[in-house]
Automatic annotation (TrEMBL):
UniProt family annotation: Belongs to the NAD-dependent glycerol-3-phosphate dehydrogenase family.
Ranges of residues in domain Glycerol-3-phosphate dehydrogenase NAD-dependent C-terminal: 232-379
EC id: 1.1.1.8
Keyword check for NAD: yes
Gene Ontology MF terms: glycerol-3-phosphate dehydrogenase (NAD+) activity; NAD binding
Keyword GTP-binding among record annotations: no
Keyword set, alphabetical order: NAD, Oxidoreductase
Top-level class of the enzyme under EC nomenclature: oxidoreductase
UniProt name for this protein: Glycerol-3-phosphate dehydrogenase [NAD(+)]
Residues bound to NAD(+): 47-52, 78, 135, 191, 307, 336, 338
Pfam families, sorted: NAD_Gly3P_dh_C, NAD_Gly3P_dh_N
Organism: Eruca vesicaria subsp. sativa
Catalytic activity annotation: sn-glycerol 3-phosphate + NAD(+) = dihydroxyacetone phosphate + NADH + H(+)
GO biological process, one term: glycerol-3-phosphate catabolic process
Organism classification: Eukaryota, Viridiplantae, Streptophyta, Embryophyta, Tracheophyta
């Protein structure tokens, strides 16, 4: 079986303390020389959607301030032609704005959009992956053998490959295909709110070097975006993907106007199933990870304001008569819905492992998405056999 999946102290600083914040990190040396042999790190963001553009904005602001990084931040853009006939890459470089996926937000004068994937990464020694999960296999195949030297990666991708022999996280896919270490960044991060610099948090999960994790923290952290490292890649990454199933459930509750008590109950039950499944798949996952931004905080924000909740709400309001594909095309303007495919692959994994009865909420969400159950079944999840 081979399943490609989407599965699997307030920190406010004044302008003076902001300068202190950046000087605290500026003494850190670059992880390794860039491909051209200099001592400054070069960063490329692989992806340019809503969240990818915000990630580029965060990184670009720090690259200008930190002496161990080159000013220029490259951003690989999957080329699109806009309704006016212009190429998206040309417009981004001309206006310093991703007019399709993050309109109205300046990315930073040092962000350079590049439609050529290999050219975008060729001099970088820090790669930030932030694309829909379904593109990662093709991206890794295209970059295999092209990424050389001491390169570090971080994945903001919410997804997983599941094979007969077990799950393979996207961070593991990147490491295996490209031969590089890969951390992850997940959290309660609605991109549009971070884009306008509202306070938010995130979690960096790392497997090996704390020093590398701290380097990623310095690159993403700003006075309005607080990042914390956690020694638990699988736990952080699973939190970032499984919460989308819970968000679909929360959307059903909202669409049926079942109220806040019901929604809180579904969120709690969903978080419980997230933790249980994560620890079944990876016994090394830490309980404490679920109290980080990537855990309970991400469940809360995704169930209150994320795209998965919003589209699931519309699905329930239609009585399940409008398909998720139709609603995605109508409501998301080119962005991708992850929760429905996550629910499908979670269901297939649970079925394959004989765990369906252990995860009744996850199972019910999938059955509602496929039309086997009505949206109202979300509060009767214990009554339905998969």
């Amino acid at each position: 079986m081979r399943i490609r999946s989407s599965f699997f102290s307030i920190f406010l600083l004044s302008s003076s303390s902001s300068r202190s914040f950046f000087s605290r990190f500026s003494s850190l040396s670059a992880m390794s020389p860039g491909a051209n042999g200099d001592l400054k790190s070069r960063v490329t963001v692989v992806g340019s959607g809503n969240w990818g553009s915000v990630a580029a904005k965060l990184i670009a602001s720090n690259a200008l301030k930190l002496p161990s990084f080159h000013d220029e931040v490259r951003m690989w853009v999957f080329e699109e032609v806009l309704p006016n006939g212009e190429k998206l890459t040309d417009v981004i470089n001309k206006t310093n704005e991703n007019v399709k996926y993050l309109p109205g937000i300046k990315l930073g004068r040092n962000v350079v959009a590049d439609p050529d994937l290999e050219n975008a990464v060729k001099e970088a020694n820090m790669l930030v992956f932030v694309t829909p999960h379904q593109f990662m296999g093709g991206i890794c195949k295209k970059l295999k053998g092209k990424v050389t030297g001491e390169v570090e990666a971080i994945s903001l991708v919410k997804g997983m490959e599941v094979k007969k022999e077990g799950p393979c996280m996207i961070s593991t896919l990147i490491s295996k295909e490209l031969g590089i270490n890969c951390c992850v960044l997940m959290g309660a991060n609605i991109a549009n709110e971070i884009a306008v610099e509202k306070f938010s948090e995130a979690t960096v999960g790392y497997r090996e070097s704390r020093e590398i994790a701290d380097t990623w923290v310095q690159l993403f952290s700003t006075p309005y975006f607080m990042v914390t490292p956690v020694h638990d890649v699988e736990g952080v990454e699973l939190c970032g993907t499984l919460k989308n199933v819970v968000a679909i459930a929360a959307g059903f509750v909202d669409g049926l106007e079942m109220g806040n008590n019901t929604k809180a109950a579904i969120m709690r039950i969903g978080l419980r199933e997230m933790r249980a499944l994560s620890k079944l798949l990876f016994p090394s996952v830490k309980d404490s990870t679920f109290f980080e931004s990537c855990g309970v905080a991400d469940v809360i924000t995704t169930c209150l304001g994320g795209r998965n909740r919003r589209v699931a709400e519309a699905f329930a309001q239609s009585g399940g008569k409008r398909s998720f594909d139709e609603l995605e095309a109508e409501m998301l303007q080119g962005q991708k819905l992850q929760g429905v495919s996550t629910a499908r692959e979670v269901y297939e994994v649970l079925n394959h492992c004989g765990w369906l009865e252990m995860f009744p909420l996850f199972s019910t969400v999938h059955q509602i998405c496929t039309g086997r159950l009505k949206p109202e079944a979300i509060v009767h999840y214990r009554d339905h056999k998969a």
